[in-house]
Amino acid sequence: MKGTDMPESTEFDLKLASGTVHAHRWGSPDAPLALCVHGLSANAHAFDYLAERIAGSSRQMVAFDLRGRGRSEITPPGSYGLTAHAQDALEAATVLGADRFDYVGWSLGALIGSLIGRALWGGPGYTAGWITSILGAMLLLWAYRAIVGRTGGRTRPAV
User: Fold this and answer.
1) CATH number of the domain that residue 57 is part of
2) Rounded CA separation 4/9 (Å)
3) What is the span of the domain harbouring residue 95?
4) Residue 154 lies in a domain
5) pTM over 0.90
6) What contacts 97, CB < 8 A, 6 or more positions away?
7) Beta-carbon neighbour count of residue 126 at 10 Å?
8) Using 50, 70 and 90 to split pLDDT, how confident is the model at 66?
């Protein structure tokens, strides 16, 4: 947002094995990553409000349009689904250079996050913490408290 101290997003594409996804980054690319995944009928702009208030020099937030949504590539039938989207999210984190990241998702994004969490929980993996909500209205409050007030401890998915 111009004229304020809130960070503006930069837009870019991520080339994944499954196709190209369009992404928005708020904050410093060198800061710890919070990867944001939207709901079924939304796109990366669902995180504008939250990211403008949380991201900065010590936290980058990256939201991407799932394949077939927003400005991401439409891929062939049969190439979608929870497992495919979870693989996309993990690959996006890798392409962004993150060996650990926080995960923020709502609705479909929460389901994708729970699949990632089930696969990685308790073992070596990418995630430092999850913030997920089936109820999109809860996203702002939960994510704000968890990301801004997080002490570095692991958090369990709130699905």
Assistant:
1) 3.40.50.1820
2) 13
3) 10-148
4) no
5) no
6) none
7) 18
8) very high
pLDDT value of position 150: 53
End-to-end CA distance of the chain: 31
DSSP letter, residue 126: S
Residue 20 within any structural domain of the chain: yes
Distance CA 40, CA 44 (A): 11
Q: What is the tally of structural domains in the chain?
A: 1
Neighbours of 76 (CB within 10 A): 7
Cβ atoms within 10 Å of 129's Cβ, excluding its own: 20
Nearest to 102 by CA among 139, 141, 129: 129
Least reliable range by pLDDT among 92-96, 104-108, 128-132? 128-132
Written as one letter, the residue type at 114 is S
Is the pLDDT confidence value at 61 over 50?
yes
Domain for residue 124, yes or no? yes
Whether residue 15 lies inside any domain: the answer is: yes
Mean local confidence (pLDDT), 21-25: 98
